[in-house]
Structure formats: structure tokens, C-alpha cells
Amino acid sequence: MEKGISPLSKITLGFIFFILYAPIFFLIIFSFNSGDTMFDFKGFSLEWYRELFHDTRLLIIVLNTIIVALLSAIISTIIGVLGALAIYYAKKRRTKNLLMSLNNVLIVSPDVIIGASFLILFTMAGIKLGFYSVLLSHIAFSIPIVVLMVLPKLMEMSPSLIDAALDLGASSWNVLTRVIVPFIAPGIFAGFFMALTYSLDDFSVTFFVTGNGFSTLSVEIYSLARRGISLNINALSAILCLVTLLMVVIYQLISVRNKKANELGVYKQ
Description:
- The chain has 269 residues and is mainly alpha-helical.
- The chain has one domain: MetI-like (MetI-like fold, Orthogonal Bundle), CATH 1.10.3720.
- Helix content is 80%, strand content 0%.
- The protein is built from eleven helices and no strands.
- It has helices at 7-30, 47-53, 56-88, 93-108, 111-125, 131-156, 159-167, 172-201, 204-209, 217-227, 231-268.
- Helix 1 crosses helix 11, helix 2 crosses helix 11 (231-268) and helix 6 (131-156) crosses helix 8 (172-201).
- The two termini are 34 Å apart.
């Protein structure tokens, strides 16, 4: 007989969710405040959203952030899938463990160390700090995330699928595009969305490698907050929360569709 969640567990879980989400709801509510402080809600207004959308500089920074996030997510997903395949097909166990260890270095290393390392690297290489330095650093720390998302799906794949495709005359390219990639597609999508989220969210590494004339939302919000709390930050944060929620919903829909497709394929077989 299955036991339900105890009342104490429900209370604890509710308290944890309250601690996590109450500040976000508080922030979103005051983004509609007609006043200019977060201590006195004077009335409903869209003033801060209008001010936000009339701030050309901030809109350019939003566009910069989206472009960097999309490009880094796409490139890191491609490289990450190839890296996961290289680890999966490594013949020696020692080689496979070494590659996994090297892959995990950027994940377990503190962001401050990573950011400082990239700053030193770009300075020594003569790369000007700006769009390309931010893009390269985001690609670098996103690749290990994609590898960790894709590799478990490769481990789940039965070698007999590849052997059967080869026995039927499929080329190596057909095996990759028609057997392996469709099977690991959920891991690829998960890696892409994780890379996209990490890029949009990153502050520590970006703070080190961004230069004059180029900025991202995380760095800009930090700069604005240091000057004093303005409710246009609330409006911007509320929009980011909405975008994040939409990304989560899209990812869940894709996951459910892929799961149903896999179940249907198994049923047909």
C-alpha cells in the first residue's frame, strides 16, 4: 500500500517553495506599482514597463544577451554532442574516465576562477573583450553541460540498434542521423535548453570577459542595482521570469512529445 505525503512534509515543502518564490512574486507585483519604491504600493500602473521599452540602450543589451545565448547554446550543443559521442566510443576505460574528468573540470570549478582564467587567456591572446570574448566563454562553459545531458541517453541506447542498421546496409552517416540522433534527441534538447539558460543567467564569468561598449543583462542589472533600486529593474526581471517560464513549458512539451513518440515506436515494434 502506497503512503501519501505526510502533513509535516507538505508543510516543509510549502515553506521551501514560499521562501523560493515569494521574493519573485514580490518583485513582479511591485513592477506594476505607480510609485517609485518597493515599500509602498500606491496603485496599478504600467509606467515602468513603458520606461523599460523606451530605453534604447537597455533594449540593445537585451538583444545582445539573446544573441549570445542562442549562438552559444547552438554551438555548444553541436560540440557537446560530438564530445559525448567521442566519450561514448572511447575504447579504453582509462581514456573514457580521463575525458569525463576533463569535461567536468569547468562544472566543478568556481565561476570566479573560470572568469579570471578566460580574462587572462583573452588578454594573452590579444582578443578584445566584448561580444566574441563573451560568446567564446559561454560556449566553453556550456559544452560540459551538454555532454552530461547527452551522454546518459547514449548509455541507454542498445548497441544492437547500430549493429542492425549496419547489417541492413546503412552508412555511418545514416546511422548517426537516423538512429543515434533521433534516440538521443531528448538529451540534445535538454542540453540546448540548459546551455541557453546558463548563458542567459551567467554573471560571474561574463563580468570578467565583457568589455566597454558591450554588456549583457546580468551585468547591466548588477550595475543598475548598485546605483539604487529602480522599478524598471522589476519590470525587466518580470519579463525575464515570463520568458524563463515559457522556456520551461516548451521544454516540457518537447519532452512529453518525445516520450510519446518513443513509446509509440516501442509499441509498433
